[in-house]
Amino acid sequence: MKYLFSPGKIGEVNIKNRLVRSATWESRATEDGYVTDSLIEFYDELAKGGIGLIITGYIAVDPIGAQTTRMTRIYDDSYIPGQKKLVNSIHEYSDVKVAAQIGHTGNNAISRKLETVGPSPIRDPLTKKICRELKNEEIKEITRKFAEAGFRAYECGYDMIQLHAGHAYLLSDFISPFTNRRNDEYGGSTLNRLKIVIDIYNQIRDNLGKAFPITIKLITQDFLGKGKGLDLEEGVDIAKRLVEIGFDAIEPTSGRTSLRITNNKSFPSVNFSSPDDGTYYLPNAKALKPIMKDCPLILMGGIRNPISADNLLEEKIADFISLSRPFIYEPDLADRWKSGDLSPSLCTNCNACFGIGERREVYCVIKKKLES
Ligand SMILES: Cc1cc2nc3c(=O)[nH]c(=O)nc-3n(C[C@H](O)[C@H](O)[C@H](O)COP(=O)(O)O)c2cc1C
Prior knowledge:
Layout: E1 8-10, E2 13-15, E3 19-24, H1 37-47, E4 53-56, E5 59-60, H2 80-91, E6 97-103, E7 117-118, E8 132-133, H3 136-155, E9 160-165, H4 170-175, H5 190-208, E10 214-219, H6 232-245, E11 249-253, H7 257-263, H8 282-288, E12 298-300, H9 306-314, E13 320-323, H10 325-329, H11 333-338, H12 365-371
Parallel strand pairs: 3-4, 3-13, 4-6, 5-6, 6-9, 7-8, 9-10, 10-11, 12-13
Antiparallel strand pairs: 1-2
Bound molecules: flavin mononucleotide.
The site of flavin mononucleotide has 22 residues, from strand 3 and helix 10.
């Protein structure tokens, strides 16, 4: 384990090791999105387990930006005291860093009661709803809401933020030519489709400066087949532009994978593949790495084995390794691996944690079965 437990850096923020908890919606907030004791306990378990950086589950920047109930929100100042308490509690554990993931669900709201919006009126394959096309001035308003969420995250003591621009959520839908059919300043060319992301970045950077890292979980491909949606070649071009403007880290992911998976009638998820796929964003990471310069690449998706994780770092395919489902099963996985027990994560990729439903807390279904 020469690399996994070596220190790393994102922007000016030092991270004690290369293990990251990829953003995981916790379903532990109140119905209005306020922090609860249960959410704090969930993060305490993780923080004391040896991890270097925790990325929170996505925090909604707008009342219609929360995909489900019991998801955290940060669209006005009333959310600050609870979020501060959460961050302070995480920071009590030996030098753990925490990033606020901020996002807007767009056309992906599970709750049928929410209005769904997007760059263009496209039918969502899961909810079957056609979203309302956003007006130009509404896009500017949402841009401002993202920036304000960034300022609030800073005020709450978060070490950095991550923009959620993947998984067919709003920013991802702006970037993908499959969902963005506009012909104004927000559609058409690659640069126009990226405008909302770049504007958010500039508003946050202009206010908070370079010391507060701005990272992004980025759609790099739609997996809809050749000529449909975003292909990896354009995904690399997009990443290159974001590195050039100054993003502090990129975690590559996909966009509207849901179409492919739904058609296959397997689990309707945007970003998981079968357990056999292994490290399924490896081709994306390999394509991106040459253009990343000094910008760290956070690799996620199916990584379960600490030895292969260490090799990915040694081969400089990734700078950080992030995992989601394994930390639901074993919040102390980092300490287990550090202590020399190098057996892979116990997560079976069953995806039951994802299917728990929006009113219940996320937990590992397999672990609970084994314990009962
Ligand atoms: C229960 C659950 C909730 C998730 N919530 C989020 C989220 O809020 N934001 C996000 O970007 N990804 C979310 N993801 C996706 C994970 O961050 C990660 O990209 C995906 O699970 C693949 O990593 P893994 O193979 O290590 O689980 C979630 C995944 C699970 C299982």
